[in-house]
């Protein structure tokens, strides 16, 4: 089961995601991203710190979201806590294993992701 909560921190829309991002739940996340863009939001943060499982369809939604936001001159940032690399964050491992981690701007938390002065974590 996937839960998505939307908050705003101008100019950013933050989608806090909890649960499993898989074949069944991925369309729900896709809809949330499309809804944000449809309402004129062009800068989106996906807080993946609460995601416990992610399969290839979940990765597909992340890549499609990145493509969508880039096409409308927006930005997509992901939150994968820094401890994830050490403790084995599932999403971080999946993105790295598929060789797509470098495609994303990844931050430790919402504060860092919404601050244009903070540099992304290295891949």
Compact summary:
The protein is α/β, with parallel strands linked by helices and 123 residues long. It is built from five helices and five strands; from the N terminus they run E-E-H-E-H-E-H-H-E-H.
Provide structural commentary.
- The protein has a five-stranded mixed beta sheet with strand order 1-2-3-4-5.
- It is α/β, with parallel strands linked by helices and 123 residues long.
- Strand 2, helix 1 (26-38) and strand 3 (43-54) form a beta-alpha-beta unit.
- The mean pLDDT is 91.
- The protein has helices at 26-38, 56-71, 83-87, 90-97, 110-113; strands at 2-9, 12-21, 43-54, 75-79, 105-107.
- The radius of gyration is 13 Å and the shape is globular.
Categorize the overall geometry. globular
* Low-pLDDT sequence parts: none
The whole-angstrom Rg is 13 Å
Chain oligomer state: single chain
H/E element order: EEHEHEHHEH
Please summarize the sheet with the most strands: 5 strands, mixed
- Termini separation (Å)? 28 Å
Find the structural class using helix and strand composition: alpha/beta
What's the total helix number?
A: 5
In terms of DSSP E residues, the strand content is: 25-35%
Question: Could you give the topology of this structure?
Answer:
Elements: E1 2-9, E2 12-21, H1 26-38, E3 43-54, H2 56-71, E4 75-79, H3 83-87, H4 90-97, E5 105-107, H5 110-113
Parallel strand pairs: 2-3, 3-4, 4-5
Antiparallel strand pairs: 1-2
Helix pairs in contact: 1-2
